[in-house]
């Protein structure tokens, strides 16, 4: 096997070179399997803290908003959406990222998970950005058209903003939102 041989050569890249003393071909080609412990341990602690507080905080946010009727406002619907988006990113992305801090290669999760991880990251980021955009539009309507904003229910307001975005994107209206299109 090629990986079993210890080599004693130079590894040239972009006029810089590193020595590959006492390394396998794979280590010389791909680099060290893990960064130094002085980097990995603090990053692991920070990632673990972010994971625990993020999951706990976002789950608590979702529970509080769903259980309390008085919290069913347009603003809290947006916060709920942001919490779900963050949960998706935290649960599906951060554990794999944490694993890769310790073991850069070989990638054990397989190609489907790699694709799902990238897709989830992009979806979560886009959902967060679009939610903040829709929240901004809702605030615009509340400030610039206060009488129209008062006559709409909180769910109708958030659905209207959702429909504004979807109409701009030429998508179909979702079935769970009533048709409440008003020109802004």
From TrEMBL:
It is a multi-pass membrane protein. Residues 57-184 form the G-protein coupled receptors family 1 profile domain. The chain crosses the membrane at residues 45-65, 77-96. The keyword ATP-binding does not apply. It is found in: Cell membrane. GO terms for molecular function: neuromedin U receptor activity. Keywords: Cell membrane, Disulfide bond, G-protein coupled receptor, Glycoprotein, Membrane, Receptor, Transducer, Transmembrane, Transmembrane helix. Pfam families: 7tm_1. GO terms for cellular component: plasma membrane. Belongs to the G-protein coupled receptor 1 family. This is Pyrokinin-1 receptor. It comes from Caerostris darwini.
């Amino acid at each position: 096997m090629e990986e079993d041989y210890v080599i004693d050569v130079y590894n040239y890249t972009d006029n810089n070179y590193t020595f590959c003393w006492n390394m396998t071909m794979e280590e010389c080609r791909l680099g060290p399997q893990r960064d130094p412990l002085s980097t990995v341990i603090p990053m692991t602690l920070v990632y673990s803290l972010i994971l625990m507080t993020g999951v706990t905080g976002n789950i608590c946010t979702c529970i509080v908003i769903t259980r309390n009727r008085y919290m069913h406002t347009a603003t809290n619907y947006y916060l709920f959406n942001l919490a779900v988006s963050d949960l998706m990113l935290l649960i599906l992305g951060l554990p794999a990222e944490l694993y890769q801090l310790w073991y850069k290669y070989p990638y054990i999760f397989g190609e489907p998970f790699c694709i799902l991880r990238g897709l989830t990251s992009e979806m979560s980021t886009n959902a967060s950005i679009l939610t903040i955009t829709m929240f901004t539009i809702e605030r615009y309507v509340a400030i610039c058209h206060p009488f129209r904003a008062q006559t709409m229910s909180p769910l109708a307001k958030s659905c209207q903003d959702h429909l504004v975005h979807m109409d701009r994107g030429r998508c179909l209206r979702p079935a769970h939102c009533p048709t409440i299109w008003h020109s802004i």
